[in-house]
Amino acid sequence: MSETEHPLTIPAALDLAATRSRDREAVVDGEVRLTWEQLRDRVREATKALIGLGMRRGDRIAVWAPNSHHWVVAALAVASAGAVLVPVNTRYKGGEARRILERSAARLLFVENGFLGKDYLAMLGAGAGAGAGAGAGAGDGAGLGDAGEPVPGLPRLAGVVTLDGAERPGTLAWDDFLRLGARVPDAEAAVRGASVRPDDPSDLLFTSGTTGRPKGALTTHQQNLTTYRAWCGRTGVTGDDRYLIINPLFHCFGYKAGVLACLLRGATMVLQPVFDVGRALRAVEAERITVLPGPPTIYTELLDAPDRGRFDLSSLRLAVTGAAVVPVALVRRMRAELFPEVLTAYGLTESCGTVTACSAGDDAETVALTAGRPIDGVEVRVADGDRRPLPTGRDGEIMVRGYNVMLGYLDDPAATAAAVDADGWLATGDVGHLDQRGNLIVTGRSKDMFVVGGFNVYPAEVEQVLAGHDAVAEAAVIGVPDARLGEVARAYVTARPGAGTDPDDLVGYCRERLANFKVPREVVVLGALPRNASGKVDKAALRAN
Question: Which of 45, 50, 205, 403 has the greatest CB tally within 10 Å of its CB?
């Protein structure tokens, strides 16, 4: 197939969508409605502004903001400028976001301040006498960084652009940012987009790993577009679909299985910043939503909404879920009451977010109990501790090979070598087996990792925070079942000699330092943590407690 039929870069895919689906809606964000042609024009404006700011190919540009048309425009402009997108979790506190900005060496940050009542800029320490940053010098071509650090302690971050319309000290408002591209010819932006190569990195998504230390997985334009072309083929998403994107855009599920999938098919993205059951029901009816992916918890809330019967939800066609255990009864109920088609899938950040997926013809048991079959062109095998293949039905570590396996972890060749072997097999750390039909059954997760409402939580990170409390001697964190979120964190701690430990105080201590989904639901104080024969904390014993 030619590049015009199957584009291999994000700017080429956007140009094709704007040509084929010119007058069809691309983005709906509240009162903002953009056709594919208008979206391409907005992205071109933002690309010119990035060039005017001195952004170069390969520069890393972060977005710390909720779902919005600004997020989509900024992300596609980053790709069209040949830069690398670094999404930042909107639930992060300042220290967590700062670590991502520091490790990625981000040169520019797009931020929407005040989301969920959080002052992101204050959490970063931005604008505290740091100079004008992006706002100074950029308009006259002087570039970034001429007026000092917009965020103290992050010398590589040369500018901050606010998406919420308010310019603050050390930042540049979105409209002023766009004006910086006025002197950049359209042709220059077109040349920049055309210079992007399929094997150029397109994004850098951070995944904590079992050590709790963030690791940035680099993936390319071609890897992501090929993966989500296969995903669309398996799930059946088409240009006629209207896709409600509630999954956060900082996550593969929202950005790649959402924005990029819609980009490839010319489908309409209807954006919501957070899941609210009433707002979602209204959107389905008003926008005639056909596709609504998400974690299982959102479907439970939709099904159980007391006023669901007041809304016309007959447009719904497809639900794609995963990231947690999906009960067979839930799949059956979803199919009977909301969606003719319900599919599950499996993936991880290091594989562009997708490895396997079910298809429309699968029965409820297959959808609920398996993660489907590998997408086209991707191999899955299950291996023993020495990475030797195991027979069908035997549990072992899930291994993946194909075009979707990351380039590697940023600046971490040792971790990359440990994850991807010389033959290209990615060790996922997840445990499972293949059935007789080739479906993947995931029976365990990456060591101690668990999933809260669709978000991965790595106990080591939470344990490190708890260990920083003056009263805590040791901490161990596990996931425990929760009816709404699938799992939540429970922490077990021991006290330092002579120190009193109040469980509620420790929960509050975590809440000040961690994203909400990582905060333990409860803290249990023990005289000693159980240990196995090697002296390590026995988390199996804690789970059995």
Answer: 50
